[in-house]
Design brief:
10% strand; 467 residues; five-stranded parallel beta sheet; alpha/beta; globular
């Protein structure tokens, strides 16, 4: 009887213990699942491939709510020749729509690989904006709205970098003529739009990441917010940090997944492979080459994407502690972002460079930045690099693995990746944009030559842009 009583007492206790254990296990699984969600969704999508016909990863299935978005964007319905038509995409059926259906992997036009990818930001940003409207998965930081009056900014969806890459290599005398023709047609389109005339283009966002993109039109689009890789080929009156946005290149080497190659596993101290003899500001490369080519544990050699150049660069960066990022024909290069995703601590030598998202990212925590005049002093650079301890390098290495997500372009976009970071940077420009527009309107009621927004203005392009 006593034994039976003891068992009856133990039975509820055992039941309560089992219930508590089950609840703990369930909550732990939910925690792990929520933490792995975005990465798992990205892996699922990459498994489908852009060319497949599968469904995108499950998302909310509804359009993004403009009331909850960080940035509301009005995007022009430009004809496909300005955007996805450059990828040989055609609207489905006779009289089809302007945009692809991005809710299905098979509906997303493929972007050409190789070096074309490094300046592909217009593709990723436009896809994300279409996703916000169509109900495909997206963090909804930026939302497409149907009326310009409800928008913070107006996006001009011209794939300027792709247009340059596609048309600039045409054999003379037609070299680049189609790219210039597209730019002319774009200017005519904008000049006819009331959204442009209302603000003189000051709330318009133009994607011109390739240094030679928008080469003809840029001087007439000076009031706009440009999204660029750097300011190397723009005068300050056209592009500057006050109004414009610096965006990262898309890296061309693969991400270093599951990287455990720490300090002792990287035999090369300092690595550089690329074009050595450059013009203009890139002359510092050849000076550094002659200073460093015979240094122990330094790899400094010519390289290109031809052959297996990307594979060689991938292996070289992953086997190196520090990677040189030296100014070339322009202040920036894709090499910086290749080194970031290779977790090779960047050594940046480019006095005129502007770095993406530097208002929220402290680059000194994961890179070394050196003035050009100091770098070419004999012994200076090697003494600096060799003076960085194993512990200090390891801190930067770990930080690289934390920040690399901010430099990742992907579709569907993920929270705080490059696409979302660009939208957030543009959103931080909105108060300044509004200030400029409001100041522009101070004396508008007294102007005798006010633009009639109902019809295109007949004056010159620059006269249409109020100063």
């Amino acid at each position: 009887m006593a034994a039976a009583g003891a068992a009856s007492c133990r039975s509820p206790l055992a039941w309560l213990f089992a219930l508590a254990a089950a609840l703990f296990f369930a909550s732990w699984c939910l925690l792990l699942d929520s933490a792995a969600g975005p990465a798992a969704a990205a892996r699922a999508y990459h498994g489908l491939g852009l060319g497949g016909g599968g469904r995108l990863p499950a998302g909310p299935g509804t359009k993004c709510d403009p009331a909850r978005a960080l940035l509301r964007v009005f995007m022009y319905d430009l004809p496909p020749e300005f955007h996805f038509g450059l990828l040989d995409w055609k609207p489905p059926g006779f009289g089809g729509g302007v945009w692809p259906d991005v809710r299905h992997a098979g509906g997303v036009p493929e972007y050409p690989g190789g070096l074309n990818l490094q300046h592909s930001i217009e593709y990723w940003l436009t896809l994300d904006l279409l996703a916000s409207e169509q109900g495909a998965p997206t963090p909804c930081a930026a939302v497409r709205v149907p009326r310009a009056a409800d928008a913070d900014v107006v996006l001009v969806p011209f794939f300027a970098s792709l247009s340059f890459n596609r048309h600039s290599r045409v054999v003379p005398p037609a070299r680049g003529s189609e790219d210039r023709a597209l730019q002319r047609r774009l200017l005519e389109y904008l000049a006819s739009r009331p959204e442009w005339r209302r603000t003189g283009g000051r709330d318009h966002v133009v994607l011109a990441h390739h240094p030679n993109g928008m080469l003809d039109a840029r001087y007439r689009l000076w009031p706009c917010v440009f999204v660029l890789c750097d300011f190397g080929r723009y005068p300050p009156s056209v592009a500057n940090l006050d109004k414009d946005v610096i965006a990262p290149y898309r890296h061309v080497v693969d991400n270093f997944a599951n990287d455990t190659a720490g300090y002792g596993d990287r035999p090369t101290l300092l690595y550089f492979q690329g074009a050595i003899y450059r013009k203009d500001g890139g002359s510092i490369r050849q000076e550094l080459y002659y200073l460093l080519k015979d240094e122990k544990d330094v790899h400094f050699s010519f390289g290109s994407v031809a052959g297996n150049g990307i594979e060689q660069a991938t292996k070289g960066m992953r086997a190196s502690k520090f990677c040189l990022n030296i100014a070339g024909d322009t202040p920036s290069s894709n090499r910086l972002f290749d080194s970031i995703v290779s977790h090779c601590v960047p050594v940046i030598i480019s006095d005129e460079i502007e770095l993406p998202f530097e208002d929220v990212l402290d680059y000194t925590k994961f890179s070394v930045i050196v003035r050009g005049a100091d770098a070419v002093k004999k012994g200076f650079l090697m003494n600096l690099i060799r003076g960085i301890s194993r512990e200090e390098w390891t801190l930067m290495w770990n930080r690289l693995k934390e920040v690399e997500k901010h430099f990742e372009y992907q579709y569907p976009s993920q929270t705080d990746d490059a696409v979302q970071m660009i939208w957030k940077t543009i959103a931080r420009k909105v108060p300044s944009i509004r200030l400029k527009i409001n100041r522009l309107r101070r004396f508008s009621r007294f102007e005798t030559n006010k633009t009639d927004e109902s019809t295109p203005h007949s004056s010159s392009w620059l006269q249409n842009q109020a100063s």
